[in-house]
Amino acid sequence: MARLHEYKGKEILAGFKVPTPAGQTASSPDEVLAAAKALNKPVVVKAQVWTTKRAAFGGIQFADSPEEAKAKSEKLFGLKVKDFEIDTLLVEEQITIEREFYCGIIIDDSAQCPVIIFSSMGGTGIEEIAEAHPDKVAKAEIDIQTGLRDYQARNLVRKTGIHGKLQMQLAGVLVKLWQAARKYEARSAEINPLVLTGDGKVMAADCRITVDDYAVFRHPDLGIDIARELNRPPSKLDKIAYDVEKDDYRGTFYFIQMEQDFSKDDGFVGFHGAGGGGSMMSMDAAHTQGFKLANFTDTSGNPAASKVYRAAKIILSQPNILGYFGSGSGVASQEQFHSARGLAKAFIEENLSIPAVIRLGGNGEDKAVDILTTSTKGLPAPVEGYRKDDTAQFCAERLRDLVDKNVLEPEPEPGRRFVKPSFDKPYSFATLTGSITFDHGACADCDHKVCVESCIPEILKVENGVPVLAISEEDAKAGKCIECLACEMECIYHGKRGAYIDLPIAGLDEYRREVA
Predict the structure, then answer these.
(1) What is the Cα 306 distance to its own chain's centre?
(2) Domains and CATH numbers, the chain
C-alpha cells in the first residue's frame, strides 16, 4: 500500500469540496516564511511524516507571525523521526475548534467490503474511543455497487446522538470521503480530526489516505514513488526494486530496505523469503541466530525466474551484509526450480563472496536444490540448498555456522568467474523484460542442443544445426518466452556456453557506484 501525506490527502478532499484550512507546503524555512506571509494570519506548521502523534515530538508548531513560523520551521527541517528525515512542512491557517469528530473508511477483509466508521468524539486512537465510549461510535458496511447514500450517512451520524444541521453537515462530508476513497481506490481514508469550527463550519483538520498498491498505476496524478506502506521516504534501493515489480505481474516481488549504513561488524544479512507466514517464521529463525536483517524480500506467487534473479541482485547490492538467507513457507505451490535458476544466475554473476543458505521447499524441490548447488559449485562462498523437511531454524543455524567459519575460496575454479560474453555469431531476440542471445558459432559445435531440450514453453527449435525461435519475435517479447533462464543455465553446464540472457535493472549500477 502507498501512504499519502496529509497535504496530498487534503488536496484530494478539496477536489470533492470538503472544506480544509487554507495552506500550502514548504520545503525550506524561506518557503515557510513566504507561505505564512501569504496567509497573513496566525499559522500552524505541521511536519509531513507517516506517523501519528506528531505533537509528541514537536511536529506541530503554532506561530503568530511569519518570522516566528520560519524560526520554528528551522528546528523541524532535517529532524529525524523513526528514520524519517523531515523535508516537507504544511503551513496552514490556525482555526478555532469547537468540537472534534472522527470518520474513516477501511477495506475490511473479513467483511469483504468497505466499512465506514464515525465517532462523535475525536482523538488519537479510534479503538480506544470505541472501547471507552461505545455509544459514541457507529459503523456500517458500504455496498460497493450502490456506494454510500446520503440517508445512510445521516443514519450513521444520528446513531452517535447528533441531530439537526450538524448531522446534515457531517453526513455530507462522509459521503464525499467515500467518493474520494472510491475514486482513488483507497485501502483506508481517515479524517482525524474532523472539526466544527468557531464559525460553525465542518472542516477536515487532518487527512490520511492509503492507496491500494495494485491501483497506483491508475493514479499518476498522486505522484507516488513506490506503492509501499513505509514510515519513511523510500530509499534508492527501494525505488529500484519497485521499478522491477510495478510493470511485471508474474508473481510478487516485494522488497523493503530495513537498514542502511551499517558495517560488517553489525551482523546484518540479506533476507529473501517466499510467502508471508513462512517468511515471518524464517525471519524469526534468523533473529534467534543473532542475525539482523538488512531487508525484507518476498518472491512468491510463482514468480518468473527473471524476477527472482533481479531480487537476488538487488539484495546483494547492500554493502556489508555477512550472508544471504533464503527461506519461505517450505511448502510453496510455485515451481521452485524457477527460483533456483534465478538465484544461481545472480550468484554466478556476482561471483558470490558471502555464504548463502536457501530453503526451496515446495513443488520441484529436488530439482531446484540440484540446480542451485550444482550451478554454484566453485564460487568463492559456499551455497547450500535445502528442502521442506529442513526447518527454517536448521537453515538459519547452517548460515550461522558458515558465517562464523568464514570459509571462502580466494578465487573461483578456473573458468568460473563470470564475464559478460561477446559472441562471434550472435542471434538475439527480446523477451518481456530483457533479451536472449545465442552464439550460433558455438551452437553449431554443440551435439545435443540442451537449450532447446530444456525450454519449458517450447518456443525454441533447431534449424540448420542451431537454436532459433519457433514462434514470432513479437510473441516472444509479449511473454511467450517466460524467462525461465533454463536455456542459459543448462548451456553453461551441459552445452558450449553459447547462451546469455540479459536482464537489466534500471539504476542498479549507478547505485552500486554510489555506495561502493
Answers:
(1) 18
(2) 22-93 (3.30.1490.20), 97-220 (3.30.470.20), 236-405 (3.40.50.261), 426-502 (3.30.70)
Instruction: With CA atoms as reference, report the closest residue to 483 among 345, 363, 349.
Output: 345
Name beta bridge partners: 103. 118, 191
Name the nearest CA neighbour of 41 among 22, 20, 60, 13: 22
**Strand, helix or coil for residue 149:** coil
Share of the chain above pLDDT 90, in %: 79
Q: How far apart are CA 137 and CA 161, in angstroms?
A: 10
CA distances in angstroms from 411 to 257, 367, 377, 379, 381, listed in the order given: 30, 27, 12, 7, 10
Average pLDDT on 441-449 reads 90
Higher-pLDDT residue of 413, 21: 21
Give the pLDDT score at 232: 78
DSSP string computed for 344-366: HHHHHHHT--S-EEEE--EETHH
Q: How many CB atoms lie within 10 A of CB 145?
A: 5
Helix/strand/coil for 236: helix
Query: Dihedral sign, CA of 277, 280, 282, 284?
Result: negative
Alpha carbon 425 to chain centroid distance? 41
305-315 and 336-350 helices cross at what angle (nearest 10)?
40
Task: Please give the biggest Cα pair distance in the chain.
Answer: 88
- Of 256, 402, 383, the closest CA to residue 322 belongs to 402
Does 193 sit behind a cis peptide bond, omega within 30 degrees of 0 on the bond before it? yes
